[in-house]
Amino acid sequence: MEAATARQTRRPPWLAGVAPLVILAAAIALFVVLDSPGLNRIGVPQEKLSVERTVLKPGEIQLHVRNEGADPVRVRQVIVNDGFAAFTQSEDRIGRLGGSEIDVNYPWIEGQDYEVVMLTETGATIDHTITAATETPGADVDFYALMALIGLYVGVIPVAIGMLWLPWLRGVDARWIQFLLAFTIGLLAFLGIEALLEGTDIATAGAEAFGGAALVWLGAAVAFLGLAGVDAWLRGRRARVGDGTAGGDAGTETDGHADGRGRRVVGAGYRAALLVAIGIGLHNLGEGLAIGSAYAVGSLALGATLVVGFALHNTTEGLAIVAPVARERAARVGRLVLLGVIAGAPAILGAWIGASAYQPGVAALMFGIGAGAIAQVIVQIAPQIRDTAGRVLHPLAVSGLLTGLFVMYVTGLLVSL
Amino acid sequence: MKDGRGKLSRRKLLGGAAGASAVLGLHQVVPHDGLHHAVDEAFAQDGHGGGHDVQGGAGVMQHPMHAGTVGMVDPRANGFDPQLILRDFDEGRVVNGVREWELVAEEKKIEVAPGVSYDAWAYNGRVPGPTLRAREGEHLRIHFTNGATHPHTIHFHGIHTSRMDGIPGLGAGDIPPGETTTYDFHATPFGLHLYHCHSMPLAEHIAKGLYGAFIIDPKQGRPEADELVMVMNGFDTNFDRSNEVYAVNTVAFEYLHRPVVVRRDQLVRIYLVNALEFDLLNSFHIHANFFDYYPTGTRLEPRDFTDTVIQGQGERGILELRFPYTGRYMFHAHVSEFAELGWMGFFEVTD
After folding, report:
1. What H or E segment, with its residue span, contains residue A288?
2. Residue numbers of B between 229 and 268 with CB closer than 8 Å to A
3. Contact B237 A85 (CB under 8 A)
4. What is the gyration radius of the CA atoms in chain B, in angstroms?
5. Is there a contact between B253 and B244 (Cβ–Cβ < 8 Å)?
6. Domain contains B76
7. Domain of residue B129, CATH code
8. Do B116 and A124 touch (CB under 8 A)?
9. Residue B69 touches partner A, C-beta closer than 8 Å
């Protein structure tokens, strides 16, 4: 019908949709060419720069700055601790959202604090404080190996250890499983809240230009909806596989069990576990970022407390992953390893990114994605803790939730970046 | 030469190393009355033609230290050159026995450190304002026009009547934009004084650049010397009531980049004025040398023989010294952070 109309008028239907866009583009172009007729800059320029990354090398302070204001910024002099210092910069004029690298020639001393002031052409000053100066590790093989080791310690190993509860889980009473699933939800809720708070902190401190805290919530929405889509896709695929191979297939999707209505549900436990693993993996990516960036600025107290803290913190994550598969018939080692890697390995990736290419906007988005993924996982798991009366918040579940929150809070105290 | 001998006898009394160096200096004294004029002319050749970059003897030096600003300030864009301000004495004109000047307060964007602009208020388009010079007892008239958008005055240090004090509410009081007044008084006492705007808010009106040196020579004059004016100042570029940039004669590190050229053994007289706002003290320190110090220049006998002098806000004094050796000698505020924020320079001593 539409096609027929279009053919009659010889005008493709998309044209009507595109026309307003074309007119908008033309109007903007005209407005810019005419230099915003009728509108003048009100007031004086507001020069805003945020320092996204500080790199300290012997005799040199390197600042990666971004213009988060509306007006262009021209840095003309640099003052370090009340003295002008020689410097070079990659961009003479930093436009809106533009970045620049400012290399200051300064004989800084290990462990001391420095106040770096960028003096702009208008005489405005942008201050940046460096606390306890220490040389930024170079991004060589050793460094990546160290970050991988840290990621391994705080991400992969604890998660793997936590997953070793699976044999025990398989033997316990169904009520225990329900309790542990509730525990998992409590744990995830804690991680989600933590991710939101941390992401918001980072965003407001260094990513105002890119939307600040909105980035966190945007990331959360994307992850929440994205995972919902993945879940729907997995369900649809499983349904098709189930319908087409009703006799039971030796394929990867056949190790499921019958649901209440007697239909064959393929790998429902693993599906839930995969979602949990993805959620935790995204969370650990953010955790790795935080560790790597803290290491890069020398503020990471690498040591037993940190590693032990993370180990305890993240071991519970391993438990959370295996809880949904406790009632699966077969324990598939390969699949479990994959789940462990999905949940733990992002910590390594995060540490690499955080230590070598930290960008507050990206970090805030990552934390948001982690939080959104966790929220989706909670939504997915929640139905499994229903009791026979269909209640989610029955006493056993509530005690599990609270235990999860409490354990994460206590083990979290051991980890302070 | 006459003065050189006087210096020697005084230093002999002080004895020690200073005396020894003075003796050494005397051996090498060459008759050079007027030599400093040659130096002046060397500056003038480059300076007065509009191209203000001082080349040749002074040269443009890229200092090798970590400290220092990046780039150079263009004196042409500023419309005044600290190299010329050093030796620029404005004696006005004498009409019917009265010495007169025309001063205009203006608003002007100036470059105080390379690339860093400052919306200054200036007398006659320069910061510091012109160095006014008269002789003790002369009748003075200063015709002042306010060419700016805020009320301004000129308040002279010196001895005069209440009506001529140049403050709001007395005499002509605040001079509104576009209006004119004449300050009329006699030059007394002799010494090194200061003039500045006294409109409210006071700190703001001074800090923005409305100040200058006011020299009243004693009747009998002072010994022939290479005379330099150094007005110590600073600029609060971000309006936080503390200075971001410090300098002598406005431009940060001016004399570090382009040293002040003086002749060996020549008597050098520095008219040192502290026009700094927001900081209570300023100071002047010379390397590898000592100077006679005459506070406010109101006595003909020095009070101190020293290498460092401290001045509070509005304080000033006259320094006299000779450089016994050629070479480059640093001078700077011994308030070290001022030094590193621009108040640092060199004398280039040549034969």
Report:
1. helix A268-296
2. 235, 237-238, 240, 244-245, 252-253
3. no
4. 20
5. no
6. no
7. 2.60.40.420
8. no
9. yes
Domain-by-domain residue ranges, chain A? 49-130, 141-243+261-413
Is residue B108 located within the same domain as residue B201? yes
User: Number of folded domains in chain B?
Assistant: 2
Distance CA A205, CA A203 (A): 5
DSSP structure class, residue B259: P
Taking the C-alpha atoms of residue B7 and residue B26, their distance in angstroms, rounded to an integer, is: 10
In a domain, B248, yes or no: yes
Judged by DSSP in three states, B82 sits in helix
Long-range residue pairs from B26-31, CB within 8 A, at least 24 positions apart, any chain: B28/B264, B28/B265, B28/B324, B29/B1, B29/B4, B29/B265, B30/B265, B31/B1
**Domain limits at B302?**
2-70+225-350
Contact (CB<8Å) A125/B115:
no
Same domain, B299 and B254: yes
**Residue in the block written with tokens 């700094």:** B276
Q: In this structure, is the dihedral angle defined by the CA atoms of residues B272, B276, B281 and B283, taken in order, positive or negative?
A: negative
**Can you list the positions of beta strands (E) in A71-133?**
75-80, 84-85, 87-89, 99-105, 114-120, 125-130
- Single-letter code of the amino acid located at B227: E
Q: Are residues B285 and B236 in the same domain?
A: yes
For the record, the structure tokens of B252 come out as: 């940060």
Residue B118 domain flag: yes
C-beta atoms of A117 and B244 within 8 A: yes
Query: In a 3-state reduction of DSSP, which class is residue B171?
Result: coil
Query: Whole-model pTM?
Result: 0.73
Class of domain A49-130: mainly beta
Per-residue pLDDT of chain B (351 residues), as tens digits, is 333 333 333 333 333 333 333 333 333 333 333 333 333 333 333 333 333 333 333 333 444 454 578 889 999 999 999 999 999 999 999 999 999 999 999 999 999 999 999 999 999 999 999 999 999 999 999 999 999 999 999 999 999 999 999 999 999 999 999 999 999 999 999 999 999 999 999 999 999 999 999 999 999 999 999 999 999 999 999 999 999 999 999 999 999 999 999 999 999 999 999 999 999 999 999 999 999 999 999 999 999 999 999 999 999 999 999 999 999 999 999 999 899 999 999 999 999
B99 plus B138 within the same structural domain: yes
